[in-house]
Prior knowledge:
The structure is a single chain. The protein has seven helices and seven strands. It has helices at 38-51, 86-91, 96-99, 101-117, 126-133, 144-157, 170-186; strands spanning 5-9, 19-23, 28-32, 60-64, 120-123, 192-195, 199-202. The strands form two sheets. The chain has a five-stranded mixed beta sheet. Strands 6-7 form a two-stranded antiparallel sheet. Strand 2 (19-23) and strand 3 (28-32) form a beta hairpin. Helix 5 (126-133) packs across helix 7. The relative contact order is 0.21. This is DUF429 domain-containing protein.
Amino acid sequence: MLSTFTGIDYGSKTSGNTVVCYHDGRAIHFYEADKKDADLFIIDWISKYNLDQNRPALTTIFLDAPLSLPAVYQSIVGFSNYHYRQCDVALKAMSPMFLGGLTARAMELKQHLQDKMNVETYEVYPKAIAQILLPDHYHKKLTTNEMEALCGMLSRAIPELCLAEYPKTQHQFDALLAWVSGYRFLNQQHLIFGDIQEGIIIV
């Protein structure tokens, strides 16, 4: 089960900030887009991984990016907020509309992975899981020493969390938090925020 999903911190297309966090059955590794096209990087990484028939297929990714728009744009009765989805309001997350192009890319990526590769994509929010598992410790300018200490805290909560190396950047650490959200989801330990008609965030 550990080898069938991945957590991804999703950045702008060529920033190099997109990071895949993956457990190969022995330990967790980080893979960075390195200023390549981030979407093609993710697609290629999954394709190459699934070519190896000695491993179980990767079937699910947990992506730190909005995967839907506010439901008012679909004219669904009962929704009137043009800026935020219910899940965004509940978690005080950024508006998918403010993120604009990143949201559109994430939605297109999800559709491609589902239609062409039989891979499901779920939306996660690293800050939210950090507030649950690492209360008062997480912030957006973590030092390498802080990340190492927080990994120790996460390992106590999730025994299977074995790292090949500690995160070296905030983006790697956020990808790890996305992976933790996926682990919680697949072990039915997760929380769900939002309305299924509009879009949910897995925490």
